[in-house]
């Protein structure tokens, strides 16, 4: 009976250990360092290897000019730039600026929409990585009531 | 099997327009529980994958700055009636959820 209880406890511990290793379940790398960065420049370098981007007027980046609540800010990105590899969104004044990063496939059309949290009024930057380089554009959104991000 | 993911795919010619809404608290780890006064630990979707016929068409890496009950909208092509489309996610606790649908 004592042996039985030990086996159950060992089993439970093994299961817990397995459950706390989500890395094994990632299809693609999750950019931990970039997400942990507290400064936008650092986050860019950690995510893309550089903080240098080319400003582009071919990125249609839409966010509300004023967000009543920072907990749910809708945005959309659409671009005519060809050969998109990824699109990432940085909220400059968030405690950790990198909010989200989309990895495209050759079949993905160059437009998307999602919803983010903003801690306070901030510049928000959309960074588009293509076969020809890294492009970006930003918008400022005023937040009347911050959503802890 | 219950899933907390809703997905709608509209086929327009060979383009599939996807809209998906998933239930998840996306806790930042910075919020205090008003009843207990304790910090609510971070609990958020870390990675989400949209797949068509076993090919990932979009992989999304998320942080706590993605809004609660994440919503995504995007399109891909080619797609056709009968394609097997699925959405799956894994979160910071190692929990997972997924849903599969047939385009048509």
Topology:
The complex is a heterodimer of chains A (149) and B (104).
Chain A (H helix, E strand, L loop, with lengths): L1 H18 L12 H5 L3 H9 L5 E2 L3 E4 L3 E4 L3 E7 L4 E8 L6 E7 L3 E9 L5 E9 L2 E13 L4
Parallel strand pairs in A: 1-9, 3-9
Antiparallel strand pairs in A: 2-4, 4-7, 5-6, 5-8, 8-9
Chain B lengths: L4 E8 L2 E8 L22 E8 L2 E8 L8 E6 L7 E8 L4 E7 L2
Antiparallel strand pairs in B: 1-2, 2-5, 3-4, 3-6, 6-7
Give a short account of the largest sheet of chain A.
6 strands, mixed
CATH superfamily of chain A: SoxY domain
| Rough outline of chain B | elongated
The CATH topology of chain A is: Immunoglobulin-like
CATH topology of chain B: Immunoglobulin-like
Can you tell me the CATH class of chain B?
Mainly Beta
Quickly count the domains of chain A: 1
In round numbers, the mean pLDDT of chain A is 88
Largest interface: A-B, 43 and 38 residues
Shape of chain A, please?
A: globular
Strand content of chain A: 35-45%
**How are the strands ordered across the major sheet of chain B?**
4-3-6-7
Describe the structure.
The complex is a heterodimer of chains A (149) and B (104). With 149 residues, chain A is an alpha+beta fold. Chain A has helices spanning 2-19, 32-36, 40-48; strands spanning 54-55, 59-62, 66-69, 73-79, 84-91, 98-104, 108-116, 122-130, 133-145. In chain A, strands 1, 3, 5, 6, 8 and 9 form a six-stranded mixed beta sheet that branches. A three-stranded antiparallel beta sheet of chain A has the order 2-4-7, with no helix packed on it. Chain A is globular. Chain A starts with a helix and ends with a strand. Chain B starts with a strand and ends with a strand. Chain B is elongated. Chain B has strands at 5-12, 15-22, 45-52, 55-62, 71-76, 84-91, 96-102. Helices cover 0% and strands 51% of the residues of chain B. Chain B contains no helices and seven strands. Classes of the chains: A alpha+beta (149), B mainly beta (104). At the A-B interface, strand 4, strand 6 and strand 7 of A face strand 3, strand 4 and strand 5 of B.
């Amino acid at each position: 009976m004592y042996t039985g209880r030990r086996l159950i406890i060992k089993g439970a511990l093994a299961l817990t250990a397995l459950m706390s290793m989500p890395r094994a379940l990632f299809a693609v790398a999750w950019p931990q360092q970039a997400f942990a960065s507290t400064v936008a420049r650092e986050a860019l370098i950690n995510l893309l290897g550089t903080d240098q981007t080319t400003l582009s007027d071919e990125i249609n980046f839409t966010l509300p000019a004023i967000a009543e609540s920072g907990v749910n800010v809708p945005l959309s990105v659409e671009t005519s730039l060809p050969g998109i590899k990824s699109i990432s969104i940085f909220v400059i004044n968030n405690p950790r600026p990198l909010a989200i990063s989309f990895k495209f496939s050759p079949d993905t059309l160059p437009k998307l929409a999602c919803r983010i949290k903003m801690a306070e009024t901030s510049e928000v930057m959309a960074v588009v990585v293509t076969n020809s380089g890294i492009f970006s554009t930003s918008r400022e959104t005023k937040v009347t009531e911050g959503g802890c991000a | 099997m219950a899933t907390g993911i809703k997905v709608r795919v509209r086929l327009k010619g060979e383009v599939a327009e996807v809209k998906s809404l998933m239930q998840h608290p996306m806790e930042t780890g910075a919020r205090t529980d008003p009843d207990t006064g304790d910090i609510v630990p971070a609990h958020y979707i870390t990675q989400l994958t949209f797949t068509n016929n076993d090919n990932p068409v979009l992989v999304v890496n998320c942080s706590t700055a993605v809004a609660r009950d994440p919503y995504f909208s995007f399109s891909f092509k080619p797609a056709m009636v009968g394609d097997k489309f699925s959405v799956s996610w894994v979160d910071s606790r190692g929990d997972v959820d997924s849903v599969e649908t047939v385009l048509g």
